[in-house]
Design goal:
The protein is built from 1 helix and 28 strands. It is mostly beta strands.
Length: about 375
């Protein structure tokens, strides 16, 4: 009985601390928004979450093609994938000045491949993993106590092809996502029609093959990005070569994914090219959002809480030509959409009850924006 009581008390304390943290976060109003681009560096803005007002700080960190950004859980450091398509790519580390928004370069490491397009920091801030699109490898690095990246600890490679001979001539790792329990890493591979799955060893900053090692998607679909539900029971995969979202159930003990449903990210009857890119799920697990680049739109889906399945409720045009990266603002009430071709990002309002998007008149010019990261200001 005493053992059960102590377990209950410990769990209650953890939940109380979490609730306090959430309450504090919800009261935070001032942020820095960092924007990753295809260009010469990282741009920043001061963001007032209460009014959605943005004040530009211009370029704050120099790095070639910072196409994806990530921070540690405590917002001390910012990491960027340097998506260089000629020669070896890199991952770069910066220290964040949360009073001014300035970034101080710390170091960079070779990505052990070509065109690293994504990276992620684990939940303990002990390791970073990246996805090399062109060559398909997934390197991992220890994060030192001062935020610098250590020498590469492991490199997960793959082999094979898909039915699309132009786009699937080899492996193309496109994203890296840690599970909430920090036990698994998921890597959508556009070239192999697989969601690669790895075991996470945060203490050694290494990845190891999982059993099962992957989940298959529809041949020729080209899985690109994945979003895990807040419950951890479901996963949502956007496919680039076929405009559709795959809904998977997830086994939390083995990491295995099982396909439940496939839903188009475009309107019924659509026959053109859409090139879907990003997928997100809100913190309540009620709505999923996906971008269609060449169709210039965002698809919105409602989630059935019982079985995780999706119903498409909206496909809204963005007024641009290549909406790629999308992100929720810290309040969860706005969606930021980066348009890679029109050199601007725009803001949509999110209806809290119904999930649908409404355009605002807010549009900001920045070279080829493709990634967003919000950091609380001090």
């Amino acid at each position: 009985m005493k053992t059960n009581y102590y377990k209950w008390a410990a769990a209650s304390a953890i939940l109380s601390l979490f609730a306090m943290s959430e309450s504090h976060a919800s009261q935070h109003k001032e942020y820095f928004l960092y924007v990753g681009v295809y260009g010469n560096g990282i741009y920043a803005y001061h963001y007032d979450a209460a009014t959605a007002r943005l004040s530009p700080l211009n370029m704050v960190g120099e790095v070639g093609n910072p196409s994806f950004l990530a921070t540690d859980p405590d917002f001390r450091y910012l990491y960027a994938a340097s998506e260089l398509e000629k020669g070896e790519g890199a991952v770069a580390a910066f220290a964040i000045n949360r009073a001014t928004g300035a970034l101080t370069p710390l170091n960079s490491r070779p990505s052990a491949g070509v065109a690293p397009c994504h990276l992620a920091v684990d939940h303990t801030a002990k390791m970073l993993i990246a996805a090399n699109y062109t060559t398909g490898g997934v390197p991992s690095y220890p994060i030192e106590h001062d935020g610098r990246l250590g020498n590469m600890a492991s490199l997960m490679t793959a082999s094979g092809t898909g039915p699309d001979k132009d786009r699937q001539e080899g492996p193309h790792a496109h994203e890296t996502v840690f599970s909430a329990d920090n036990k698994f890493a998921y890597v959508p591979d556009l070239g192999l029609d697989e969601i690669r799955i790895y075991r996470v060893e945060a203490g050694t900053a290494k990845l190891t093959p999982n059993d099962p090692p992957f989940a298959k998607t529809e041949p020729g679909s080209g899985p690109r990005h994945i979003a895990l539900s807040p419950s951890g029971k479901f996963a949502y995969v956007i496919h680039e070569l076929k405009p559709q979202v795959g809904v998977f159930s997830r086994d939390s003990s083995t990491g295995a994914l099982t396909l439940l449903q496939t839903v188009p990210s475009v309107p019924d009857g659509f026959t053109g090219k859409a090139d879907p890119a990003e997928i997100l799920i809100d913190t309540a697990g009620k709505f999923v959002y996906a971008s269609n680049r060449t169709f210039g739109s965002i698809a919105v889906f409602s989630v059935d809480s019982a079985n995780g399945k999706l119903t498409r409720i909206q496909v809204i045009k963005t007024g641009g030509t290549m909406p790629r990266g999308v992100a929720f603002d810290p309040t969860g009430s706005r969606l930021f959409v980066g348009d890679q071709k029109t050199n601007r990002f725009i803001i949509f309002q999110i209806d809290a009850a119904g999930g649908k998007l409404t355009p605002t008149d807010q549009s900001y010019e920045v070279p080829s924006p493709v990634a967003f990261e919000f950091v609380p200001a001090k």
